[in-house]
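Form 7-S
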Amino acid sequence: MLKSRLPRFIALLGTVGVLASLVSVAVAGTGAYYTDTVAGTVSGNNGTVAISASGNTTSGNLAFDFSGILPGVAKTATITVTNTGSGPEDIYLAFDNSNNMWSAVNDLGQYGKFVINGNTYDNLNNKTGNATTGVAGSPISDSYINTTDPTNSCYMVPRVPVNYLPHVIFLGTLPAGSAAWPFTISFQYIACMSDHKGQSLFNAATWDLGGTAPAAGTPLLFKVAAFQPGISPTNTANGTGAIPNLVLPITQDLRTPTKGTEQ
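Output:
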């Protein structure tokens, strides 16, 4: 009896083995891990960098008239910049030297002083403070301002450290959401400057740069510019919006090149 069942049991084990093998093949072919999916899409649009500015305007451009300026008395203008773009923006004030007036400003020496957004730029490239040792705090003494003469209007006026008006000045970062922010531009002549009555602004000192000096009344050109946060305004990837680098117009007193520059 047992012998007759053994072949059938062995045959059954063989059948089960074949079925297990087939199931294994099926699992390997179709995957046995559970999965699920959720469909999605990618869409959007480009952001914008945009500003508006208000102040004294002429033909839609910012224009500030500092006529009638007197020595020692500052003239101040206020510009309000509004972020009209889609995100935060870095705001810069940039000067244009296409008419040589940025060079003329940086030829004023200690005659001129700017205060922009709370930062002072005076002794503009050291024109009138380079004839002696160049030590900050010592009196100015040269052919323009003879401080050794007690009758001179600038007698014993102390020099200030050399400085210049940069062509690009960072003003701050405006947040998104039509944020508005005012900043000021102020200019004045040194208080002892008494021998240039009626002259055009920024043309009061003798031109030292060679070539043709800008005509009287030529304005100092500037623009307010916005860039993506952290992106340099001179970065060429800004395309036509990039602000080109300008070379500092004077590095020493060009009237007497043998003199050392003020440190």
